[in-house]
Amino acid sequence: MIQPRWRMAGAALAVTAAGVVLATAVAFAGAGGTEPQRGRSRGWANSGPAPDVDYENVAYDGRFTFARVRFNPTTWSGGRYAWGLDLKWNHDYPRADRRLAEILGAVTGVETQQEGSNIVTLDDPELFRYPWAYMCEVGFLELSDTEATNLREYMLKGGFVVVDDFTGWHWYNFEAEMAKVMPENRFIEIFADHPIFHAFFEIDDLTFGGGQYRFQGGGPPRYFALFEDNDPTKRLMMIANFDNDIGEFWEFADNPYVLIDLSNDAFKLGVNYVMYSMFH
Q: Which of 223, 165, 159 is nearest to 193 (CA)?
């Protein structure tokens, strides 16, 4: 059982990265492009099947493309998100996706798809085109047998999954759903000495962020992983940012209410996740 540990928040900023990240984030403020309409309030709630929404994926061309996992949430409602709906999986879409792709290309030289991100479902064979996938709000995740089987095969064949934006009781639902995927594995907490936090940037302090969950009883961010063969010395297949929401810091990197240090640290973490997935 996870027990929160309270620590003082702090973050160290890499000066060389800061200039690139800040410059790119500011550029987003005037960027054009079509985005789904965002709603203004939560409105009603519903536990039935979520409505279909229209989106257009970009064609696969070999460049790194941000792949966002779509799932049918246990609860959904109107909300201040894309399409005017709180579908859980669509939090911070599409701006977070595009911004990480642009930062990744700017600081690493990796060729990235910056015209848009792609939405994939776990039961779609297209998932296997993307070596890196992002999931959020997994407290509302409910996997079908086909989705659980596909996700298992995806990770065993080299796919890497980032899980973000969840707190408190969400953990228990997430853990139960992942038991459908890999019942033989367990989540292992990892710390700043793990290679993923040094895959590109040197990240020695993991206490940044997480403040948005304190009103829900969340504590400082903690990081949990699923490893190949349940062995922490082998390849990390899934990382869960528990009590944190780095996608939100990517999305609002150009917002004056988000500290530059905070968005920079979130970008550094995202870049490390991608670079680790490419070499492991």
A: 223
Contact 215, 255 (CB under 8 A): no
Tokens of 278: 């490419």
- Residue 13 scores a pLDDT above 50: no
Q: Is 195 helix (H, G, I), strand (E, B) or coil?
A: helix
What pLDDT band is residue 34 in, cutting at 50, 70 and 90?
A: very low
3-state SS class at 194: coil
Closest of 153, 181, 144 to residue 70, by C-alpha:
144
- For 166-179, the three-class secondary structure string (H helix, E strand, C coil) is ECCCHHHHHHHHHH
- Looking at residue 199, its amino acid is A
Per-domain boundaries in the chain: 63-279
Closest CA to 199 of 259, 239, 245: 239
| Residue range 106-118: mean pLDDT, rounded | 95
Is the pLDDT at 158 greater than 60? The verdict is: yes
Mind listing the pLDDT tens digit for each residue in 233-248? 999 999 999 999 999 9
Please report, rounded to a whole number, the percentage of residues in the chain having pLDDT higher than 90.
73
Q: Token pair for residue 117?
A: 């991100």
Task: Check if the beta carbon of residue 41 is closer than 8 Å to that of residue 79.
Answer: yes
User: 63-279: what fold?
Assistant: Rossmann fold (3.40.50)
Omega before residue 94 within 30° of 0, cis: yes
**Element containing residue 151 per DSSP (H, E):** helix 145-156
* Cα of 15 vs its chain's centroid, Å: 24
Closest CA to 47 of 28, 86, 75, 19: 75
